[in-house]
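Morning F.,

Quick status update on the modeling queue. The single chain you submitted on Monday has been processed. Sequence for confirmation:
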Amino acid sequence: MLLGIVRKKDLEGVIKWMLLGIARKKDLEGVIKWMLLGIARKKDLEGVIKWMLLGIARKKDLEGVIKWMLLGIVIKEGFLEGVIKWMLLGIVRQEGFLEGVIKWMLLGIVRKEGFLEGAI
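Structure tokens below.
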């Protein structure tokens, strides 16, 4: 999966693998479904993140974190590939899916782009 991101930037395939992992934990399935639809139909990554924001805000109080993520994706080029890589690492390593993903995404953002250092 990581090789796919680096070599081909195959985001649809990556998200499909994410869906398989999330389905096992029975959490955020609807969010990922919308992500798949958004990527397949429009390649509209900003819209995809907006759907993530809506879905996560309903389940957890992480709206502010997701807003910062959205801001970073809109502003930075080449940002999404690093985020997805860290999301995959979080899914593999963490048992608590959502907390692990957010943690690894924030680590990836800070290390690769540095734009959240002041906010955190």
